[in-house]
Amino acid sequence: MERLFMSSIRRKVTPLNGQWHITYDPQRRGEALGYEKGPEPEGDPVYVPSCWDLQFGRYDYKGVAWYSRSFVTETPGGCRLTFHAVSGQADVFLDGKKLGSHYGSYTKFRFDLPDLPAGEHRLVVKVDNEINDRDTLPLRFVDWFVWGGIYREVELEHFPSLSIDRIHIRPKWDGDQVSDVTFCAQVKNWTRREIQDVFFLESDSFDKETLTAVIPAGAEQEIRFVLNDFRPLLWDTEHPHLYTFRIGCSTDDLYERTGFRKIETQKDKLLLNGKEIFIKGINRHNDHPELGYAVPPSLIHRDMQILKDLGVNAIRGSHYPNDPVVLDYCDQMGFLFWEELAFWNHPADALASPRLEQRALRMAREMIERDGNHPSIVIWGIQNESKSSAPEGKALFSKLAAEMRRLDDSRLISFASACGKNDICFDLLDIICWNMYPGWYDDDKPLDDLEERFSIKLKDIRDWLIQNGQNKPFLVTEFGAGALLGETTFESGRRWTENYQQKLLENGIRGILRSQVVQGFFIWQFCDGRTASLSRISIGRPRCFNNKGLVNEYRMPKLAYYTVRELLHQIPSFRQGKGPGQKNKTKGKSGGKK
Ligand code: ADA
After folding, report:
1. What is the pLDDT of residues 357-410, one digit of tens each?
2. Handedness of CA 572, 577, 578, 584 (dihedral sign)
3. How far apart are the two ends of the chain, measured CA to CA in Å?
4. N or C: at which end does the chain have fewer Cβ atoms within 10 angstroms?
5. Quick one: which atom of ligand 1 is closest to the CA of 480?
6. Which atom of ligand 1 is nearest to the CA of 548?
7. Residue where one domain finishes, among candidates 258, 281, 310
8. What predicted TM-score, i.e. pTM, was given to this entire model?
């Protein structure tokens, strides 16, 4: 997959992007018609990756479609077929035989093919992006547009011998400095014979390390390199130092890039590398009105440049695991990132669903496995505004919090609550986060005293949290107002105008700062975005868009953008002076961008 740094030198990869064919199957008759061998006629041309909603007349299609294409391999041997994102449920067939299935629209999945013969092959994917009221992520009632299709890259990697995979970096800390770093990688032997090989770890930031290992036939095993004297420059929002390195053997290699930083809490404070940090963030859907989820890196980069101009230091990837390129830019540009599972307003009966539990646990494992090396990710979010005031919520979110901590104990766990003082899950979290909409949903009072009343409300919540044993950092994870671009007015107090949004956000931010009990906020939201058109949510969504963006869907700024920008640039990220001083000079130079 395309990233912002080199992925491999030695590996042979056959991209399977480009022209496929698609056959829509609204009656779900494909199995009966033997579509797994490839529908005949083969359907309409479609470009992969893309969202099928762009196809003429297919906007907002929810259901099944069958993708098919052929490809040729020149030499027989071990291969890995990877899908970087397919919406909903994917059932994958190769040459008429089922390889397997995957549920989850936002994370990659793959199939190992130990002995793929040379010649032409037929690849068929049944995609079902149905969303329901019981056990999907998200449910049918949701406030974003659930795009369909094979919307990220598909590739075939060739492994004639050994492969390197799943690189994980585990720093040990001595106070606020790295004491040693363990680099782990999974090695797979794709052959029927034992192989001894020399493995290496190299970077332009430290001396090359090597080790020899024997990998039994067909086995997978972990190799480890431990650096004891590597003192990297630390990563933070003002000094996003990154290190690129490569792990390899005689027949394969893999690059990875990471940064070294520590995120922790100390009572009600958030500390980044031991310094108290204040979150001035924004919520962002990874979405474009014409491209859907298939946002190209160039547009992601432009968004990130706008956000840098705006002055935010954090992004909440509302409300699903994001594109790895988004995370690469956050690593590079020094944005903290909150990545979360695709829950949105799941009611108690859905939270009790065993299938939902299984799907959510899998999404959590895939998200953390895929994204664990990004220094920008500091918070794993369990859910958004679901029924965490119900026993069903407590049961499921306890399991998810435990699993996420088991997989990664180096980051903070939280979720965005809309249950207020009825929430019974705050003890599961490292940070307490509330979505609040003063001046929009929460009240219909004039905005003139919003700063004061919001500040008072926040102090009341904070007192309640302390009384209830939750002396933890407290964030406002959403607040904002809708505004239609171009709708300006002299009449104060008229909702949906740019002036109303501007005044609400200014007073909201000032209220948060005035309260002095909040460690940060995420404005809802960066840009306007399409939302579900058929569900009842659209009644409050002019033009079937969520219009609470500071810019519209084409990133055209509203009045509020400039007001928020002026405010954010006055708020320091680090409470006590500048960012952490760089104590130790590392041996190599930092950066190493490939
Ligand atoms: C909720 C939800 C957001 C969005 C927002 C709104 O807080 O988490 O996804 O729907 O409300 O605009 O109403």
Report:
1. 999 999 999 999 999 999 999 999 999 999 999 999 999 999 999 999 999 999
2. negative
3. 15
4. C
5. 12
6. 12
7. 258
8. 0.96
